[in-house]
Amino acid sequence: MRDRLEELAEEGLAALGSAATEEDLRRVEQDYLGRHGRITAVLRQLGGLPPAERPAVGRLANEIKERLARELEARLEILRRSRLEAELAGEGFDPTLPGPPARAGSLHPIERVRRELEDLFRSMGYAVAGGPEVETEEHNFDALNIPPDHPAREGHDTLWIEGGDRERLCMRTHTSPVQVRALRRHGVPLRVVAPGRVFRQETQDATHDHTFHQMEGLVVDRGVGVPHMLHAMRSLLSGLFGRELQTRLRPGYFPFVEPGFELDARCPFCKSGCSVCKGSTWIELMPGGLVHPEVLRASGVDPEDYSGFAFGLGLSRIAMLRYGIDDIRWMMSGDLRFLEQFDA
Predict the structure, then answer these.
(1) N or C: which terminus of the chain has fewer CB atoms within 10 Å of its end residue's CB?
(2) Whether the predicted model's global pTM rises above the 0.90 cut
């Protein structure tokens, strides 16, 4: 068997040396190294050898396969280099022809939705505000009336950062800290939206991710109430879906608003129930409420003179609804197969 393997090695090297094209080389590869190739056929007879001889013959077979594989790669490189040199020399190559068109990039689905909503709110007189993704505990929790013993502060929900010199730092868990920063910087009256990336200590699945996108809306002025909040929310939905949607408010608790609400909208994709609304015909879209007086005080605003409303929505969720994306993990995957579906 050793003699037969040596013969196959010589034959394979000779066949590779005489191959004139890449297709010829691939045929030789299949003939000698493929699953049904000649060397594999010899190895199937290994069981008939005395046990003491099998290791040496197995090692020889592997060495021969590696030798043929190295020669194959060397021959492929020679052929490719020869073809390139021929093309550059003008053989079969017309240098006056235009090159292949460069593919233009496109906007991520979340970026599309974000820009659309920013334009919508700008048309309503809102400014676009932003804040840091690495946030202080004071902005992310304290100034938003979130008590020290609230479970949201625990490590199972918040990503805390070690090494803060003076203040405890975390990856912001929502865009609500921008409320405080905007009020402290610009004062009142104020009308802003704050889109951005947020982070949670989440177990990833089709509807949960550790990194996702939100947009916060905030209006503070004299005489602001729930009707103003409803108008803003409904204007957002009609601009987003291109038609008026039936909405409803449910009570909801959030430390930074009082009273707090959950706004639901009739499913824009069905009339009797579908997978998007889970058969209920309603979609839970936006929490909101009137800004808590303690949040106004922490932001330097007198709640006796001013009131306001705030609401939030998940940009990731809106993008999933808009484009029929069934798994939130695609959003931050960077997978080109996913992103290429949104080429302009």
Answers:
(1) C
(2) no
